[in-house]
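Record format v2
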Amino acid sequence: MPMDARKFRILQAIIDDYILTAIPVGSRTISKKYEMGLSSATIRNEMSDLEELGYLDQPHVSAGRIPSAKAYRLYVDQLLQSGILRSDDTASVKDHFGSRARQMEDVISRAAQVLSGMTNYTALVMSPKGRELHIRTLQLVPVSSTSALLVIVTDGGIMRDTVIRVGSDLDSDALYAISRMLTEKLSGRTLSEALKMLHGVQESSPRGKQVLDGVVGFLDSVEGDTAKTKLALGGTSNILNFPEYSDVEKAKGFLSVLETKDKLIQLLENQGEMAFTVRIGPETGIPELKDCSLVTATYHLSDNTHGTIGVIGPTRMQYGRVLSILNAMGQQLTDLLGQDKE
Amino acid sequence: MPMDARKFRILQAIIDDYILTAIPVGSRTISKKYEMGLSSATIRNEMSDLEELGYLDQPHVSAGRIPSAKAYRLYVDQLLQSGILRSDDTASVKDHFGSRARQMEDVISRAAQVLSGMTNYTALVMSPKGRELHIRTLQLVPVSSTSALLVIVTDGGIMRDTVIRVGSDLDSDALYAISRMLTEKLSGRTLSEALKMLHGVQESSPRGKQVLDGVVGFLDSVEGDTAKTKLALGGTSNILNFPEYSDVEKAKGFLSVLETKDKLIQLLENQGEMAFTVRIGPETGIPELKDCSLVTATYHLSDNTHGTIGVIGPTRMQYGRVLSILNAMGQQLTDLLGQDKE
DNA sequence: TGTTAGCACTCGGGTTAGGTGAGTGCTAAC
DNA sequence: GTTAGCACTCACCTAACCCGAGTGCTAACA
């Protein structure tokens, strides 16, 4: 028994209805509300087929049907293919964004808020991450007599900074000299290259060694830097708006996952640079999210720098809307963050 | 009818029991579980008095009594007076803290996690905030051809940074020269003093003006800088462990307050530098938290820099435990953050 | 062969009624 | 002032019940 056009139309109607109402949808509803020119009996037959094909589940015998993950998958694939993204939320996103946010961090967290506000789901925004960042400048700023702030600027325009200890006899000028020297040596290199170079250097003076150790230590930590990626969340409590999560236990599971951002970051990083990805239920790979869908999009700042934005909600998500909004938001972020970098 | 010692002992027993079980406690329970040498009938009489005095509430006529906010207030005041804080959680805090966290931000967020883990409540940790910060160093680091990173180091050891636009003809050395000049001029001043000084300066060259504008703009934003204080949360979903929040609507309200950190920050900032403050239920001033208590403590880095840590939980909180843990954590933070600043 | 009407059946959810027990307030005796 | 006893209240639990939405199946129809 193949999947024909009529079955697909019925399935689509079921999904649409379920997304809207969250209650199992029966044959009568489809026959009446969505004019198919078919009686409920016929729909029933088709629904029975669709269930056999694995697109529908039945919570219990005398309830209507609900779409399975497989059904959503089909639905979404269809959506993506048909290029439904022409609907334009760009203006709306801009409206919501409003005020000028200057710092990367501000933009990120504001974006998360706007995204959650517009979608009513939980939003994720991950700060840009370069695949192979090249060092541009490296500078030490005195903080106290024994410590300095190490600032590294890369071609992604991204700065990473940390405090390192330095000898007490290094004043501002000395630090600047060292900074110049390091910049000259390392400029243009990737982080890993720089690390290798510095490992080779033998520094005789103890204070020079201390600085070097600090720099190496920091590069090291930046290099294996998965946990450090900034992740902003918005509308974490939005999930409670949905009846699927009126059970406190489930809600707790969900919120716990959000709290320990690690799993999320991993999830978001593990997806190349696809324009959009949609993970439905079990596809997320996180047990607590088995009734959720995660829709993500990437935004690009430069050739090798990109970040991720996404939305988490119940599997019965308004995929079309969400995809369109993500699209607009991605562009907006590219604009906002891109301008600062050149 | 006055409040005598026996009434107080009974009240204390009721509070202890209710904190533990969250179910209304009856006269029989008190008479049996806590050996008072009194029959349930006597306890009943006393309880009736306590209710009249406003220390007890009765959910409905045939249920036990639960402590009112007023009762908790009495309980906590007693606790604080009696200097119950000798019990020492310092070692335990250190254990949990474990690994070295170097950056301020790391320490803050880790502290929030440890605090929530140890107390099982929701934890707040606010980054240190100086009343009158003095500028120590000010430096510009080139980021791209048209922008630079402005780093300001203050005597609290706290750095604030932002990206400002600069003329395209300023190279690293030129920026360093400007930095030196600015540092010389502004070092030792407070932020507001510096701001005033710079407003007086007339800069003729356009590129100098651009830099100046950037610096002024930034100082401005730091000056009125209440929203920017870093606030880390830990264990936000812990609240769901408590039966008082098994109602999803209530939980949503609570979580929403946490999400828009503004109210919390305001709340935390509005309390001088008391060693401890305890706000019970309505005392928080936030409707959504009317069934919660907020216990806070301050930790000091230097004379004019202090931060706040706190715990939010149901009004029936284990105040003694929480106060003791906050105390230990405060000291730990002073240690961890203090060392970097000198 | 596909569609439809009709019908018996299922089962979750809401409602009602009754029983249970914890807890109270009051009174009278100690 | 304390206690024992007793009647009373009321939230909570359970079982029984009904209702209705929805299904699957069958037979008739186009």
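Residues 38-42, 45, 59-63 of chain B lie near DNA strand D (CB under 10 Å from a C1').
Chain B touches chain A at residues 102-103, 136-137, 139, 141-147, 149, 151, 153, 157, 159, 161-163, 172, 176, 180, 183, 234-237, 240-241, 245-246, 248, 251-252, 255-256, 259, 340-342 (CB under 8 Å).
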